[in-house]
Design brief:
The structure holds two protein chains of two kinds. By secondary structure, chain A is α/β, with parallel strands linked by helices. Chain A contains five helices and five strands; from the N terminus they run βαβαβαβαβα. Chain B is rod-shaped, with a radius of gyration of 60 Å. The model of chain B has no long low-confidence stretch (mean pLDDT 84). The chains are: A alpha/beta, B alpha+beta.
Chain lengths: 130, 575
């Protein structure tokens, strides 16, 4: 609603439909345009095809996991500008989280995050230019 | 008690042996003295005989001379002078030797001195008579003999000789008597000495057999003793663990039934054989009992028993030396424990634990997604459709959300607990002092209004996993902060003590404390000693502390009193 003139597109990837629906509906009601992916392959394909403004992806997914997909996106000139957020239930050690940020430039959020806080942090990625 | 009794026995024994020795010495001394006396007495007897004999010889020589002298006078032939000439040179030497022999006898000496002039006179007379016969003829000689004092002189000599012989005879008798007496007393000394010695010897033997050998010599047992022995033996035989005693030479001296089973060798064939020959590694077996002899004990010494038919049994040996009453090492007592099953069980437990970890991790992990959905959709329900709900509907929705939050915490804690079990322990030097300060500052931020008297004493660095140590301090300090929440003047003290092997850290508070009878529950997962209403929490914190500390090779425990506070301790081994 506050970014109505130019709706930001978000590619949301998770193999669990309930999770997709939950976060999707929250993001939608926050005024974003949502695309859904079910696995890592779809993330790479759709990111290339639709050029979303942000990829929010799960890590544990079939075919290609989130980290692998992120590497491909970051290694491709067409997609390496797209911001990536990992949204996962996996416990990442402090070191892994740091490594992911440095190597992939991706942020990490727990799926247990409060939904309001989640929306805040997503919005923040657009306010602060990377 | 036994020691004192033994000492007494030894003393009695020593005294008896000493007495025995004294008796033999006394008997020997008396016998020796007697022998010496017999020697002297015998010498005296011989001496007396010699004196009598010599004096007799002297007299007979003189008489021979007299006879020879007369014969010459009568016959005028030189042939009659032969005995005279033979005896003449012997007279004085014989007299002298008599003087020598009777030196110690003044009476005899006196007699001899009386005899000397008589002999001189008689010899001179013989000489005169012979000269007269040769120069003046028979008649002159006979006249001289008849006129002379020859007979009186000779008679005087005979009287003296007879006196001397009488004297010597009486001396001889006295000496012989003495000799007999000495012989008798010596005999009785020897006989009595032998009898007393024999008695003492028998007594010593009796004492030795009764007290010293008493324990070794078979003797009739009291019924109670017999039962006690049977009981002891039956316990040994009842043991399922193979039990063996080994001599210092490494020979088997006793076994129980279990040994015959595990080796498949009958008891009789086992005893006296080398202990080491029943193992797959004989040298290792030898090293084992040698260690026991050297250090007194060996524990959990792994060996593999090889039976007659080749069956292998993995065992752990516990062996220690056994001693007699005098503390002398008699051998090694070795008990083997078959741990084939235990080994398998341990492996299975480890596997089960691992599976359990994986299970709890995936369960808690997979629980999160639906929980997230319940919470998320309830939130959406309240936010987007709240207007359509009445007050009760909104209250129910908020209960659902609160419950999911609580469950979320439980899952998070379970995950962290599981993670602490799986995670590799990465040790590095950890500055405990700054870590404690950092963790406390973080905790204090969540309760800014609280007034807490927080002190940190001496805290040495430790070689540990820094992230895991953060978990430990976070749990202990947040507990201390939490349970002092109802105190006006909360006091929390962190400190340590250390010895050669480990450092003991502690966190002490003056909070709610707990009843020590719940101590065993304290460090369990989801164990809570206080209600959630009283103090919030899931009850995983201390389980995490324990898990981390144990993974570092330390221990964790607590001391407390209801209403007076608690002190939590954990140790870490020194690097």
């Amino acid at each position: 609603m506050d970014i109505e003139q130019k709706k930001k597109h978000i590619l949301f990837a998770d193999d669990d439909p309930v999770t997709r629906r939950l976060f999707g509906s929250k993001l939608a009601s926050a005024g974003f345009e949502i695309l859904y992916a079910k696995d890592g392959n779809e993330v790479v394909d759709m990111a290339k095809r639709f050029q979303p403004d942000l990829v929010v992806t799960d890590i544990d997914m079939p075919n290609k996991d989130g980290i692998e997909a992120a590497y491909i996106l970051k290694g491709d000139i067409e997609t390496n500008h797209i911001h990536i957020i990992f949204l996962t239930n996996s416990d990442l050690s402090v070191e892994t989280e740091k490594a992911m940020k440095e190597l992939v430039g991706a942020e990490y959020m727990s799926k247990s995050i409060d939904l309001t806080e989640f929306i805040e942090r997503v919005k923040k990625t657009f306010v602060t230019p990377e | 008690m036994a020691g004192i009794r033994r000492l007494k026995e030894k003393l009695i024994n020593a005294v008896l042996i000493f007495l025995l020795a004294v008796v033999f010495l006394v008997v020997s001394y008396i016998s020796y003295q007697s022998l010496l006396r017999i020697d002297t007495d015998e010498a005296w007897v011989i001496h007396s005989y010699q004196v009598s004999t010599n004096i007799g010889v002297l007299l007979s020589d003189l008489e021979n001379m007299e006879t020879s002298d007369r014969g010459y006078i009568i016959a005028g032939q030189d042939i009659f002078l032969e005995p005279y000439n033979t005896a003449l040179p012997k007279i004085y030497p014989e007299f002298q030797s008599l003087q020598e022999l009777t030196k110690d006898n003044s009476a005899e000496q006196q007699r001899l001195s009386l005899m000397k002039p008589l002999i001189d006179e008689r010899l001179a007379e013989f000489q005169t008579n012979l000269a007269l016969r040769r120069d003046k003829g028979l008649d002159a000689a006979i006249a001289a003999v008849s006129a002379g004092t020859g007979k009186e002189t000779m008679d005087a000599i005979r009287t003296i000789v007879a006196d001397m012989q009488t004297d010597e005879a009486s001396l001889l008798q006295a000496r012989t008597q003495d000799l007999t007496q000495v012989n008798h007393s010596m005999e009785s000394t020897i006989v009595w000495g032998a009898i007393i010695g024999l008695l003492l010897y028998l007594l010593v033997n009796y004492v030795i057999s009764k007290f010293v050998m008493g324990n070794l010599v078979e003797k009739p047992l009291l019924e109670r003793e017999r039962q006690a022995l049977f009981y002891a033996r039956s316990l040994i035989e009842a043991s399922l663990d193979p039990l063996v005693t080994i001599s210092p030479e490494g020979k088997i001296t006793d076994v129980n039934e279990a040994v015959t089973k595990v080796t498949e060798v009958p008891r009789g064939e086992l005893i006296g054989t080398d202990f080491s020959e029943y193992f797959t590694e004989p040298q290792k077996a030898r090293d084992g009992y040698e260690q026991a002899f050297k250090f007194g004990t060996v524990t959990d010494y792994p060996l593999t028993i090889k039976s007659k038919t080749g069956r292998l049994t993995d065992v752990l040996y516990n062996a220690s030396v056994y001693k007699n009453e005098e503390d002398k090492i008699l051998g090694v007592f070795a008990a083997a424990r078959d741990y084939t099953l235990a080994k398998k069980a341990m492996e299975e437990t480890a596997k089960a634990n691992k599976e359990m970890e994986a299970f709890s991790y995936s369960v808690s992990h997979d629980l999160r997604a639906p929980l997230r959905a319940i919470d998320g959709f309830t939130q959406i329900l309240v936010e987007d459709y709240g207007a359509k709900l009445d007050d009760e509907g909104r209250r129910v929705a908020s209960i659902i959300r609160a419950s999911t939050v609580q469950m979320g915490h439980l899952i998070d804690d379970l995950l962290s607990f599981s993670r602490l079990g799986r995670q590799e322990v990465k040790k590095s030097p950890v500055d405990m002092r700054s870590l404690v300060g950092e963790v406390y500052a973080e905790i204090k931020k969540s309760v800014p209004a609280r007034k807490i008297d927080f002190t940190v004493k001496e805290l040495p660095s430790a070689n540990a996993d820094v992230n895991m140590m953060r978990v430990v301090w976070t749990n202990l300090l947040s507990n201390a902060v939490k349970f002092t929440g109802k105190k006006e003047n909360a006091i929390i003290e962190v400190g340590s003590t250390s010895d050669n092997n480990e450092i003991t850290y502690y966190v002490k508070d003056n909070g709610a404390g707990f009843d020590m009878k719940y101590m065993d529950k304290l460090f369990g997962v989801f164990q809570r000693l206080h209600s959630v209403e009283e103090f919030e929490g899931t009850g995983v914190g201390l389980a995490n502390v324990k898990r981390v500390v144990e993974r570092h090779g330390g221990r964790a425990w607590a001391e407390a009193k209801v209403g007076e506070g608690a002190t939590f301790y954990f140790t870490l081994p020194k690097a």
